[in-house]
Specification:
This protein is mainly alpha-helical and 182 residues long. The protein is built from 7 helices and no strands. The N and C termini lie far apart (110 Å).
Length: 182
């Protein structure tokens, strides 16, 4: 027996638009955060989709939330919605939510990742640890990159100062050219 999914029209239009744009190779979804018919936010539609009976709809909603991370505000909204997905009864949905949270700035996602460390599934807990390690490695790499850039700047400044100062600081400066010892 086929299961019939009934959604209200003010939910269907934005959801269909979100799904069609996402799967048409559009990459970024330009209207996230904008209002659809009857003032419905696209992120609100995805939150509703996370409650759908069909696990494929919930999984697609999780993936689309991963596309909504272009600004800190959208990362915060996506992380919050993905926090809901981490409570899904389907382990695959929770795994997908962890992967998606891994692409979000830890400032917004760590709270939910830490909660997922207590998931009933060992697979989910192991993935959370793996993703958190990757996020930490990226953070460490970013920090080291900034330190190296500062070090390069200091070296450049030293080179510029060396080019402007005499070669041997113990000797008096050389006379300007053209006046040589007369």
């Amino acid at each position: 027996m086929k299961e019939v999914i009934s959604l209200k029209s003010h939910v269907v239009w934005p959801l269909a638009l979100v799904l069609s744009l996402a799967f048409s190779g559009c990459g970024k979804i330009p209207f996230i955060g904008k209002k659809g018919p009857e003032g419905t936010d696209a992120d609100e539609v995805l939150k509703q989709a996370l409650q759908d009976k069909n696990p494929m709809v919930r999984r697609d909603a999780v993936r689309l939330l991963g596309e909504m991370i272009d600004t800190p505000e959208n990362q915060m909204k996506s992380a919050r919605a993905l926090g809901i997905a981490l409570k899904d009864k389907d382990e695959e949905i929770r795994l997908e939510a962890v992967k998606t949270l891994g692409a979000i700035d830890p400032a917004h996602s760590n709270r939910y990742m830490k909660e997922a460390l207590n998931d009933r599934s060992i697979k989910v807990r192991m993935l959370v640890i793996q993703v958190m390690k990757q996020q930490n490695e990226k953070r460490v790499a970013d920090q080291k990159q900034k330190e190296l850039e500062k070090e390069k700047e200091k070296e450049k400044e030293k080179e510029q100062q060396a080019a402007q100062s005499p070669e041997n600081p113990l000797l008096p400066p050389a006379p300007p050219p053209g006046r040589g010892g007369q």
